[in-house]
Amino acid sequence: MNAFVRPRRSVLYMPGSNARALEKARMLPADAIILDLEDAVAPDAKPQAREEVAVTLARGGFGPREVVVRVNGPDTPWFEDDLAVLATASAAGAGPDAVLIPKVGDPETLRLVGRRLEALGAPSSLGVWAMIETPIAVLRALDIALAARDPLTRLRVLVLGTNDLAKETGARILPGRAPMQAWLSHCVLAARAGGAEVLDGVWNDFRDVAGFAGECAQAADLGFDGKTLIHPSQIEPCNAAFTPPSEEITAARGLIELFDRPENAGKGVLQIEGRMYERMHADIARKRVALADAIAARP
Ligand code: COA
Ligand code: MG
C-alpha cells in the first residue's frame, strides 16, 4: 500500500536568470521548484540564465524539494544547449529530478525528448513533465497523458499553463475560472487515464491573498495534485489547501481499521452513523493517509 508518495502541493517557478530567487529557493517550504529557462527569461538573457541554472544545480542544497528545470521547446534554437546543461549536471550527480517541456502538443514530442535524453545518457531517474498550455494540447490531453505509459517518454506530470491558454484562446481569467473549468477538468481526467500527476496553473495577482486561497481550494476540489506558483508568499496557503485536514485523516484511519477487522472481512459495504462506505472508500482513505504520512515525514 505504501508505494512511494511524493507530495507536489506547491511548485514554485523562478526565472533562471534571477540569482537572488535561485538562492532563496533552498530555504522555501515549496514541495518542488521550477528553474525556468523559458517564458520568464528574455531571449538575450538565455545564455546567462542557462549558466546560472548550471551553477545552481552544481551547488545543490535543495533538501527534500523536487528540482525541475523548464527548458525551451524542441522547436527553439535553445533546446539542445538547455538539455546539454541538464545532462552535464546529471553526469556529475547533480541533475534535476525532471525536465519540464513547454508547449507540448502531441505525444510524438515527448518521444523525441525521450530519445534525446537517452542519447545524452541522462539517468532513468530524470523524469519529464509536460506543459499543457495550447488549445491543441488541451484537445489532445488524453493522447499526451497516455504517453506516460511508454517508459521512453519518462512522463510523470502534466502542468497547466493557464496564462498561455488565455492568450491563445481569448478566454478571460476570472475569479472562479468559469471560462476554463471544462479544460481544467478535462486535463485532470486525461492525466488520471494516463497515470500521470497534474498541476494547476499560476495565480498572477500575488497580492490578492483571498482570491488565491479560493483558487487553491478550487484546484484541490477539481482533483489537481498541486498548483504552480510564482511568488514565495503563495507557498504556505497552497500547502494548506492541498494537505489533507487532520480530521479527515483521523476518519480515514478509522475507516481503514473498520474494513480491516476480521468480522468485516467478507463485507463490501458498511455504515457509520447513517452513511454508506464501500471498499473503494477505504482505498481512497489509504491514498489520503499515504499522502498525509509523506507530508508529515518531510523535514
Ligand atoms: N522564487 C524565489 N524567490 C522569489 C520569487 C520566486 N518566484 N519571487 C520573488 N522572490 C523573492 C524576491 O527575490 C524577494 O526576496 P528578498 O526580499 O529576499 O530579496 C522576495 O521574494 C520578495 O519578492 P517581491 O519584492 O515581493 O517580488 P519581486 O518584485 O522581487 O518579484 C515577480 C515579483 C513576479 C517578478 C517574481 O515573483 C517572479 O519572477 N516570479 C516568477 C515568475 C516566473 O517564473 N514566471 C514563469 C512561469 S509563470
Ligand atoms: Mg508558457
CATH class of the largest domain: Alpha Beta
Number of domains: 2
| Annotated CATH topology of the largest domain | TIM Barrel
Gyration radius from CA atoms, angstroms: 20 Å
Strand order of the largest sheet: 1-2-3-4-5-6-7-8
**Which stretches of 5+ consecutive residues score pLDDT under 50?**
none
Intertermini distance: 22 Å
Family: Belongs to the HpcH/HpaI aldolase family.
GO molecular function: citryl-CoA lyase activity; magnesium ion binding
Cofactor: Mg(2+)
Binding site for Mg(2+): 133, 164
Relevant terms:
299 residues; alpha/beta; TIM Barrel; two-stranded antiparallel sheet; 12 helices; binds coenzyme A
Describe this structure in a few short sentences.
The chain has 299 residues and is α/β, with parallel strands linked by helices. The chain has 12 helices and 10 strands.
